[in-house]
Amino acid sequence: MIYDLTPPITSATKVWPGDTPLSREMVCEIEKGATVTLSAIRATVHLGAHADGPNHYTPSGQGIGERPLHYYLGRCHVVQAPGTRGRRVGIDDIGGTTGIGRLTAKRVLIRTDSFPDPTDWNTDFAGLEPSLVDALHEKGVVTIGVDTPSVDTQDSKDLPAHNAFRRHDMAILEGLTLKDVPLGLYELIALPLRLIGFDASPVRAVLRTLD
Which CATH number goes with the domain that contains 172? Predict the structure, then answer.
């Protein structure tokens, strides 16, 4: 079975305040007599489900197109952190050290349910505690994904969670839709476009159940 973690991308999809919303420019249309329909897209690369490149939060970091693909493909755990809206998710929210100790995959997706509607922006979505990122790194995790627009809270200026990812050279997935996904172990496929030098890329993120 396949679970699609990618929210629909439309003109109603909200983006980070001040960023570039989605728009579509029609170059030519079959309905208007053209041989084919052609269109151009303008939008932030942090659109919907997306992967951050390290150069988004590190001046000397890689662009998303230069990142190795193993971060975005492979075995993955989906865990839940209930009741975290308006604050950061900590180690205890995903079962403490015992919960982390049970994880066997190198990729972890954290369901917070704190950003329920991508077309209706709420500012109190959950972020991640840097100590949680550190603990998952110690467990061997290389990628963390969240169902929010950012791994840091909206009012954060020093971006402590992003900096924890930077220290450990871990990968970030944001904007996932996890509300209909049962907790457990899956295969993650969330490949970014090979946008050389770019600070992020939209992804079509899916989970495939394991035999």
Answer: 3.50.30.50
